[in-house]
Amino acid sequence: MTTTVQAGAQTPAGGPIVTRPGVYDITAEAYHADRSSLSSTGARKILNSTPAKFKYELDHPDPPKKAFDIGTAAHRLILGDGPDLVLVDHLVWNTKQAKAEVAEAREAGAVPLKRDEWEQVHAMAAALRRHPLAAALFDPDFGKPEQSLFWTDKVTGVPCRARLDWLDNARGGRLLLPDLKTANDASTAKFERSVLDFRYDQQADFYMDAVLQLELADDVSFVFVVQEKQPPYLVNVIELATPWLLMAADRNKRAREIYAECTATGIWPGYGHEVSMASAPEWLQALHERGYRS
Predict the structure, then answer these.
(1) Are 161 and 152 in contact (CB under 8 A)?
(2) What is the rounded distance in angstroms from the CA atom of residue 223 to the CA atom of residue 2?
(3) Which of 80, 83, 99, 91 has its CA nearest to residue 116?
(4) What is the pLDDT along the chain (294 residues), one digit of tens a residue?
């Protein structure tokens, strides 16, 4: 059984921050600074983009984006962990004073919010706490937020990491992993499209694999707690059907194999050096034929 440990000092140049597999209670900054292991996001980038882009983004991390502020702030209020939230209470943010306050907040690692955004995320947190199932999944009496898992994949030998939104205190038996997502539309049908667009199925499999490989539980399930960002801030708890997870397991295995090969050779391929053929989708060809005949 793996026990929770505190992380030591981070090694320079994005090296490993841990010396053995386990559950680590570390900051998000320390977790993301580790560039010696493969994360779920990295596995998805390798397959959905190219190894070359993955490597470039690994070596050149993006600064915080305003588009992610609402989701980050909602995580902070709901989970109870994350960057501080700072109210920048100006009608407009293009004044010298407002820009200075925003820059100061960003420099301190905080999330600056406008008045309407501040009220929005607090209303979202209150709405989620009124949802019986979602509130129970993130009950602070029975779990901890933002736990970082580090392990070595038993099949490929690839060092891996995952940062769970929430980890239940219970060990052994069956474990349920909830993951918080914010969306414009939390309906199951709309989320299915998001799963395909962002390969959330790979995230679910990657995190469940972490729990099993670290022997934190004998069985594990994963659910997405999806909350809308507009009133009345509806919540939908969604679990992926087995076919999603079977495909995800295959994709994550392939991503780890590619990562291992690229790491060993130092070659991170892009799109290739030969002419590629762009196929016309069958549905478009059929539509063209019907229109031509008419």
Answers:
(1) no
(2) 23
(3) 91
(4) 344 444 443 443 455 667 789 999 998 889 988 989 999 999 999 999 999 999 999 998 877 667 678 888 988 999 988 788 999 988 888 888 888 998 998 888 889 999 999 999 999 999 999 999 999 999 999 999 999 999 999 999 999 999 999 999 877 788 999 999 999 999 999 999 999 999 999 999 999 999 999 999 999 999 999 999 999 999 999 999 999 999 999 999 999 999 999 999 999 999 988 898 999 999 998 888 887 665
Separation between Cα atoms, residue 179 and residue 157, nearest integer Å: 27
Residue located via tokens 């010696």: 36
Q: What is the pTM of this model?
A: 0.86
Task: Encode burial over 247-273: b for 16+ CB neighbours within 10 A, e otherwise.
Answer: ebbebbbebbebbbebbeeeebeeeee
Output b/e per residue, 26-36; b: 16+ Cβ within 10 A: bbbeebebbee
Q: Distance of alpha carbon 214 from its chain centroid, rounded?
A: 19
Report DSSP letters for the chain, one per residue: ---EE---PPPSTT--S-SSSEEE---HHHHHH--SSB-HHHHHHHHHS-HHHHHHHHHSPPPP-GGGHHHHHHHHHHHS-SS-EEE---S-S-SHHHHHHHHHHHHTT-EEE-HHHHHHHHHHHHHHHTSHHHHHHT-TTSEEEEEEEEEE-TTT--EEEEEEEEEES--SSEEEEEEEEEES---HHHHHHHHHHHTHHHHHHHHHHHHHHTTS-SEEEEEEEEEESSTT--EEEEE--HHHHHHHHHHHHHHHHHHHHHHHH-----S-SS----PPPHHHHHHHHHHHH-
Q: How far apart are CA 96 and CA 27, in angstroms?
A: 32
